[in-house]
Structure prediction request, 174 residues.
Amino acid sequence: MRKSSWIDGLQLFASLGVLTGLILVAYEIRQNSDLAEADSVRAMLVGWQQISYSEYETDIVSIQVKSIEDPENLTAAEIGKLSAWLTVIMNQYMLTFSMHERNLGYNYEDMDNGPEMELVSGFEFYFGTRFGRAWYMENRNWIDSEIIEILDREMEATPPQFSVSYIERIRSRL
Prediction:
């Protein structure tokens, strides 16, 4: 009888050890998941930061302004630069939407519409120009349908030369 209760005690102790081990493994998995999430957010923010830096380190801003003021006279090289730049911008927007669907990324005040608000706020500068619209129409076959729906709605509501009037309004305030 004594030997049986001693064995039962050891089995109980071993079971508690296994249970404790499983709890620790679950905790480690959760920590790794949190680290992966933080790394994803950091990568997204670095992507946006690199886009911002590229706007100022190259002549992309002057090319963008030319695409607003005089799009017919863009050179092939300028069209190539703007196309590459808009491709990077669009990939970053698609990443933002994808991360938002997985509850990763920015902590928007309006959690349901955060990425959409971000896309709409950048619409005028990136896709509100005649060049931006032309680029979008040529590239919409690889863009996520949710983003297409938003951009189509914005394009319908915004005149194609809205960016020109925006620049004129800014100049008038100087």
About this structure: The mean pLDDT is 79. Residues 128 and 160 are 6 Å apart (CA to CA).
